[in-house]
Amino acid sequence: MPHQNNCKSTLRSLLAYLLSGMLATSPVFAQMSILQNLTPEQQQQFNQLSPEQRQTILQQMELGNTSGFELPVTQPETVTPRSTGNSEASDNQVQQDIEARDNLRVRNDASDTRSQRIRRKVVQLYNLDINVAALDPLGELEQMGILDASGELIIPEGGFQEINNNEFTEERLRSVVPNRDQNIEPFGYDLFAGVPSTFAPATDIPVPPNYVVGPGDTVVLQMYGQRNVRYELAVSREGIMQFPEVGPLNVSGLSFEEMRNLVRETVANTLIGQEVTVTMGALRSIQIFVLGEAYQPGIYTVSSLATITNALFSSGGVSNLGSLRNVQLIRNGELITELDLYDLLISGDTSADSRLQPNDVIFIPTVGRTVGISGQVRRPAIFELDDEETVEELLALAGGTMPTAFPLLAHVERINPLGQREIFDVNLNTEAGLSSTVSDGDLLHVDPILDQIESGVHIEGHVYRPGSFAWREGMRISDILEEDDFRPSPDLDYALLVREIYPSRNIEVHQVNLEQVLQMPGGAEDMQLQTKDRLLVFGENSLENRLDRRLLIYPVVQTLRYQSGQNDFRRVVGVTGSVSSPGNYPLTPNMTISDLLEAGGGSAEYADLNQAELSRSVDTPEEGIVRENIRLNLFDQLTLNSALQPLDQLTVRQLPNWGELETVVIGGEVRSPGTYIIGKEDQLSELIERAGGLTQYADPGAGIFLREELRRNEQALLDDFNRRLTRNILNASLTTTTGQLQDERVNIEVMNELLNEIEEAEPTGRLVIDIPLILAGNSQADVILRDGDQLLIPRTRQEISVIGEVQLPTSHLYNPEVSVLDYIDMSGGYNTNADEDNVFVIRSNGEVIPYSQSTGSWFTFQDNDFSLEPGDSIVIPYDADLRDPLITWMNVSTVIFNLATTILALEGIGRID
Fold first, then answer.
1. Domain 285-364 has CATH 3.10.560.10
2. d(CA 519, CA 522)
3. Which partner from 68, 204, 801, 850 sits 20 to 30 angstroms from 411, CA to CA?
4. Taking the model in full, what pTM does it have?
5. pLDDT at residue 20, as a whole number
6. How far apart are CA 112 and CA 550, in angstroms?
């Protein structure tokens, strides 16, 4: 509905304002923008981090830091050597490496449509407070539904989550944030998490030869030879096994191997011609004690084949207070063995995992000395120390350092005897550093190497293979860029080389003409490269290329802004107006006005090069910094070669009267209906003449003239009616709810019905004109045409319509002898809701005329003096006094009925836009 649509538009504008308003030029606002673009899941992950981790992420993703800015083209970290004229095999390998590096990016680009790519880039630029509409002179973004008519960003329902292509997962957070502040966990305790489903039941464990047979065990004997018979014999409490045909055998205390040999010898000596195989059947269960810092200490019944680890898993394992390095097996009050679970976890050694006997005690003491290790190690955790004393031994527990570790600078945090935390450095490349002792409660942190490629150069932007390339002494731009590397329509006149200056790490920017680089390798434009140089390549004039240009340029301009200082203006210049890509650009050495035009993509086709203006900051003793405006003729070569200064702003004017062709539509009963191109001063009478005039069936008095600007005004009027009427309904409802006296003339149901009619009304933008007077040559009645105007001439009409509060709203054949009241009577007369004092007539040309027989109305007519014309509509409004003098049924119903009759007339002509 119109009102709802207007509210949604207002909400979109408000949200867009908040998005853009939170992004100022300071790093703080830039960081707020980053957080604002995260999805709810990503924000939850971010909030779970420590304050130091959050700050690290923001610093690495800060917009002013060009190395961490999220560019439209990703920068793979693989360093690919460029071909230097070696063997063909080497060239093939290089090509394979390049293709492998770009596979991910190609897949991402293929999955995105052009509209999705453009929308994503527009959102990024909009959040940077960049005037995106200025980059789109043809209005493509409005046609795509990305910007509205005023240039505001249209926010889709659900926000922009559907266009976030870069996953912000926990793994990515870990790759961005150093491990120093991670919450490292004690090592090994997760071994006992959950049920011991990975360990086979004790009944399935093969019986070892040294297994001691005892009461409760079952021995299986398979006899073969003269007779084949199978016996399952239980060992009694006295250790006796009753062997049929042989007698009792005492097997208590024998090992399985000894018992087997005993049975074989007995069978061989007593049963001639018989042989036997001996195996163990069901084994006895034993009771053991698990005590100390166990997860669930107590008495447990386990298989007689169970070991210490089997018992630990049965009891739930070791609690967080228990020791993994000194699990004790006590039998009959004596310490039998000690189990170090680190041997099992780190090296897989189970030699100390002893088998249990009845009434054994597994005792878990409290944890001993602990030391933490974090950062670039393979197994960051808190380790319990046994006999480890040095950093080297601690690193061995942690699995050693990662390839990304920086061993020259590790740190140990320690609590001194005074209860203060202190820190000292350790060099892991030296014997002294590795032999440094560690103490209980220490934390060793191994820093990572710098997260950037030091000996490489980078290409970004409008190329097929953006990324990093190996640098060598004497390398030039032509060594890393070839003609086949460019995407379609590259801008060869303008590229940027961004270089870091040591030791300040500030940047300087050089402008490069790539066409001259390709034509004359080794020439003046083919600059020698230094490590960490970044070459930015742009595309020529297209919507997507202009968006990419701004996204690539923005972080460079921001960095130049941040590194400026007192009496050192930031080396930034700008170009606005009639250029392909208006905006701010780096001020490169010896940059001229001509170079600035090339940076802006060149002058647009509608540029007036005779009328340009350069605004320059001038430091005056009297007033300080003032802006000086200089008029320029850009056809003058001397002017084009003029040098620029920091903060210069070039404005290129538009040609007078330039723009898209303005058109109007004329339809209905004209000889040549259609769309016509108009000039600034063309009038309606000229349009009718160009269309061949009216046909003989035309009704010029009922012509309908529509204008978009008026349609928007009508919509605003309806919205105003809607707001005020809604307020009245709320006030009336509140009065009823609070029990206050309410005027009986205020009918909430009527107001609700009127509110629905307002919401359903469709504005048309009709302008009441007198076409017969225009055709008669009256210049004052003529209308100057505007772009988008429509003139529709209906056929001659013969009816009079009666609408509103009558018994049967309908249309009647026109009769000049019939009066207004007669037509109302012909429609059944007034109904009980009719407002007889405010009847009005809507003429076929849209004019509204009040009608009344009472002397107290606006006009006083005798019924026989009021003349109707074919096509007129008689309106009888609803009789409802809303008391508010600003909103009356008469005002609202006049607008609504007038819109309705216009819509009906348009439908009759057969043209509805």
1. yes
2. 10
3. 68
4. 0.54
5. 37
6. 20
